[in-house]
Design brief:
The complex is a heterodimer of chains A (about 210) and B (about 750). With about 210 residues, chain A is of the alpha+beta class. Chain A is built from 6 helices and 5 strands, in the order ααβαββαββαα. The chains are: A alpha+beta (about 210), B alpha/beta (about 750).
């Protein structure tokens, strides 16, 4: 019943590695205060810092990333704003509208509208993600059976509003980019594991 | 009682029960794919196989009754292997489109495939080209079909349309329309409900939502008096509109059956806002009103509010439909000594002899039709249909059609009662009454001969459980009271139980709760879903918009005297009748506060709304609401002399809605067919001097209608059918349903 967890003793004591910092007492009298200000102002500490800046400036060897103009590459597994991909050969949307991403989304920020199209196929007419609520967990990309929704590389989502949506048109690869071969496949979250072809079993077919 | 064992555990079965039924009742699990509790076993899936000690091979538990002392094994390794192989065969070439299939998440095949661990295809077959069929409200994808035959069984045994059949052709087999290229049926959609996979699906619903996204609102259908249980399935409208809307209606298909109006006619919700100026006007109108006219599309609670308004403000209450029913039942009770009749829809299903009198039940009340079909198919019931018009939809089940002349219902029921009471033990006085009937006159005027009654008598000699179904034609007959007394005679002195088919969803409730006055069309009438000087409600172009019946919670009383709860499926922002009543001092926080206050003198038991269940148990236990108590009352009624039978000559029309149309709500529904023509036979066309497609003017006593005439080859005789659902309030039962009218071809008069 009286079970005790073996906690590490972090209490401050004589035997511990902690020690009290020796802090000078602050001056209280007006004259003492004045003397401290004068001492701090004229002992030249300011110029030490200014010299470092001046030295680095005239070296012309700056490592700072010029952020809005220049961006660091991010890892392929980074989970930024989503993209909807198209099939390479036909250009059709990969999304079949199964609704699994909508179901699995733990912050309930995905919604889609589907309908039956003229060819009796399921068509996704609208798809939206509320980035204000999205926690970029990547479950949607992981559950997607068609590798249709993936996390892209765009990580900037500053917005004037708390509710900030991406809609289907924002996310879907434009056809001209697809034709130009610029749709990127992401090896990141939810992608096929390398070498998984070997584990696919062939279905017997009677042809 | 039969005692046997399952897996060495003792089990008892009732006589007539199969091994499967007994096992399920005892809590044993036997998997099935094609079994439906309400039909005869399809016996197509063979998953329910079991081993016994008295047979060598495996037997189908769904269609085999146990014998005394039988030892049954339901889960041996051999059975498991057998069942797994069946599932493997089901999965051969089954399209891997669960991602888009509407059934995904609620699919028997999916569940059983996972249950038996079929993760890959072991067998192969050359797939066949299969075309997706579009049958109006129903889409059929043969490649998803597993040929379980549930749809065929339901269509044939329960519905009676007999519209689909199986085309046998080995691996090419498919469900096809019977004797037709396209599906020609009443579109009840029950085949969609029972389909275990996504092969049969509502074309309107297909690909619009997934099963797991929809919330189910248990409710009661508002279209006819059967009070069928259904679930409104709701979800947000779209990505940009968070308001919930109804995507589809489903039913607990093991226990209930739904018609097309219930299944497809769900989109009748209205929108409303709260505007204080409008509300002030309504309050004013209510305070000045001398009477309130209302339709029976109303909950018991609202009826109770109206009754309170009557008591407090002294207004009159007009509802001709419910008043006719009230009068009919009070005349009935004056003979039977009971508040209500003894039959029910379930009693019809159990019957082996049925007489349908004075009502076109196929369109008036499909639930009654389905129970008649069930009785005919399962018990071999003899069905006598007595009506001036033959009904094409009943031709599969009717064993004797008795055609009588319009208006002669009193004579016919008197002769029928005489026939049925022939061998009953009745008093000298009643015997004398029937002996004194002028048979020659009644038979001649009603055009029903002695031999037809003799045939009826002969038919029912052997029947044990008999039902007399009284249609709603007689409610507005001039001699309705005497007809009611004669019907009551049949119930108390013969083995027949009687069912009176109430016209609208809550005619029965209104007739019990409200004190109704004769409608003398005076001024200052407030109309609630009915005509008036100031109108409220959800139908037509009203002054103050109020919610439809799927936007309200409350209860109805079905024709079975069953108090049934219904819930809010779609929100409504506007005012309710309760708000209006509260403004004149009849205070209640919610409309459903009145549920517990419904009059106990009429058999209500005072249960509060939130205490009412709305579901079926696994073994047909009906946990929906409660049954009204059938109270005894004084039986002091006397039979009256039969009045002279009226004659209806010339062009007579019968107020009768087409299939799946009932009221202003169904008229508003997007999916249901909205044919509003005058339908008549070639004989009628000749008599009225009109032809197919003519634009005509029909002069009724009270009004004039302009319609198109449509020649209907399924009809016979000189009576045409005129719909009423497309009028402003869609009311059918405000007067006698037959009327002699003048019909003129428009354009020819000039």
């Amino acid at each position: 019943m009286n079970h005790e967890e073996p906690f590490t003793n972090r209490n401050v004591s004589e035997s511990s590695a902690y020690y009290y910092v020796d802090i000078e007492t602050y001056p209280t009298a007006g004259w003492d205060k004045f003397k401290q200000v004068v001492k701090r102002t004229f002992n030249g500490e300011l110029f030490v810092g200014l010299w470092v800046v001046l030295r680095e400036m005239i070296k012309f060897d700056i490592h700072t990333v010029q952020y809005p103009l220049e961006k660091l590459p991010i890892g392929p597994r980074y989970r930024a704003v989503h993209k909807l991909l198209r099939l390479w050969e036909s250009g059709y949307e990969r999304c079949i509208g199964c609704g699994l991403c909508e179901k699995i989304c733990i912050s309930d920020c995905i919604r889609m509208d589907t309908r039956i199209d003229e060819n009796s196929r399921k068509e996704v007419t609208e798809y939206s993600i509320n980035l204000g609520r999205c926690i970029f967990c990547g479950y949607c990309a992981e559950v997607c059976p068609e590798l249709a929704i993936v996390h892209g590389q765009r990580y900037e989502n500053a917005s004037e509003q708390r509710a900030h949506f991406v809609i289907k048109d924002d996310m879907l690869t434009p056809l001209d980019l697809l034709k130009a071969g610029e749709q990127a496949e992401y090896p990141g979250f939810g992608a096929i594991i390398p070498g998984s072809d070997a584990s696919v079993k062939k279905t017997p077919l009677a042809y | 009682m039969i005692n046997f064992t399952i897996n060495n555990q003792p089990v008892t079965a009732q006589k007539g029960e199969s091994i499967l039924q007994a096992a399920r009742k005892a809590g044993f699990y036997i998997p099935t794919m094609c079994y439906l509790e309400k039909t005869t076993p399809c016996a197509s899936c063979r998953l329910c196989v079991v081993e016994t000690d008295k047979t060598d091979g495996l037997i189908l538990s769904c269609q085999t009754p146990p014998t005394e002392g039988l030892s049954v094994t339901i889960d041996s390794d051999r059975l498991k292997q057998e069942r797994t192989n069946i599932m493997r065969l089901y999965d051969v070439n089954h399209p891997l489109e669960c991602g888009v299939c509407d059934k995904s998440g609620a699919c028997d095949l999916q569940n059983k495939t996972l249950e038996f661990g079929v993760s890959s295809q072991h067998f192969s077959a050359k797939d066949q080209p299969r075309k997706i069929e579009h049958w109006g409200l129903i889409n059929y994808d043969p490649s998803l079909c597993i040929l379980c035959e549930k749809c065929v069984h339901v269509c044939n045994e329960i519905i009676g349309d007999d519209a689909i059949t199986l085309q046998f052709g080995g691996y090419k087999s498919a469900v096809i329309p019977k004797n037709s290229d396209v599906l020609d049926c009443t579109f009840c959609g029950e085949c969609i409900a029972v389909c275990p996979v996504g092969a049969l699906i509502s074309s309107n619903f297909q690909y619009s939502a997934n099963a797991w996204e929809l919330s189910q609102i248990p409710a009661t259908c508002v279209h006819c008096s059967a009070g069928c249980s259904l679930s409104y399935e709701v979800k947000h409208t779209s990505t940009t509109n968070g308001e919930e809307r109804i995507y589809r209606v489903t039913n607990d298909f093991e226990h209930t059956t739904l018609c097309g109006a219930g299944r497809f006619g769900f989109d009748f919700a209205v929108e409303g806002t709260k505007k204080e100026s409008e509300f002030a006007q309504a309050t004013n109108a209510l305070q000045n009103a001398k009477a309130i006219r209302f339709s029976s599309l109303i909950t018991n609670e609202e009826a109770m509010i109206l009754q309170s308004l009557k008591e407090k403000l002294g207004v009159k209450l007009y509802n001709e439909e419910a008043r006719a029913y009230q009068n009919f039942m009070s005349a009935y009770a004056s003979i039977s000594g009971k508040l209500g009749f003894g039959g029910s829809i379930d009693a019809i299903k159990q019957s082996d002899g049925i007489i349908v009198f004075g009502g076109r039940i196929t369109t008036d009340n499909p639930a009654v039709r389905y129970s008649v079909t069930t009785a005919a198919r399962h018990n071999g019931a003899k069905v006598v249909y007595m009506h001036p018009l033959e009904d094409d939809l009943l031709q599969n089940v009717v064993t004797q059609f008795v055609k009588y002349e319009v208006g002669t219902e009193e004579g016919v029921i008197a002769m029928l009662a005489k026939t049925l009471l022939n061998h009953s033990d009745i008093s000298e006085e009643i015997r004398g009454y029937f002996d004194e009937l002028d048979e020659g006159y009644l038979c001649a005027e009603s055009n029903v001969g002695d031999e037809e009654y003799a045939h009826i008598a002969k038919t029912f000699v052997r029947a044990k459980r008999k039902t007399l179904i009284i249609g709603s034609d007689v409610l507005h007959h001039k001699r309705a009271s005497n007809i009611a007394r004669l019907c009551a005679m049949v119930e108390i002195y013969t083995e027949f139980s009687v069912v009176v088919v109430a016209p609208s969803v809550n005619t029965v409730g209104v007739s019990l709760i409200c004190g109704l006055d004769a409608d003398n069309a005076d001024e200052n009438v407030l109309g609630y879903n009915a005509a008036g000087d100031y109108t409220l409600g959800s139908l037509g172009d009203v002054n103050l918009r109020m919610g439809s019946l799927n936007q309200q919670e409350g209860t109805f009383v079905s024709l079975n005297y069953h108090v049934l709860p219904t819930n809010v499926a779609v929100g409504f922002e506007g005012y309710t009748l309760n708000d209006l009543a509260s403004s004149v001092g009849i205070m209640a926080k919610n409309t459903i506060d009145y549920t517990a206050k419904l009059p106990t003198s009429k058999g209500f038991n005072g249960t509060a709304f939130d205490e009412l269940g709305n579901f079926f148990g696994a073994f047909w236990e009906d946990n929906r609401g409660y049954m009204l108590e059938n109270r005894d009352i004084e039986a002091n009624g006397q039979l009256e002399e039969i009045a002279d039978l009226p004659e209806f000559n010339g062009t007579v029309v019968y107020r009768c809605n087409p299939v799946n149309q009932f009221n202003g709500y169904t008229a508003r529904s997007e999916q249901l067919e909205k044919e509003a023509t005058l339908r008549g036979s070639a004989q009628f066309a000749a008599a009225a001097k009109i032809s197919d497609g003519d634009k005509i003017r029909i002069e009724f006593k009270a009004e004039t209608q302009e319609r198109i005439f449509k020649l209907d080859s399924a009809l016979k005789g000189t009576i045409a059918l005129v719909p009423t659902y497309d009028s402003t309030f869609g009311t059918l039962h405000e007067q006698y349903r037959f009327e002699k009218v003048k019909i003129m071809r428009m354009g020819s008069e000039s």
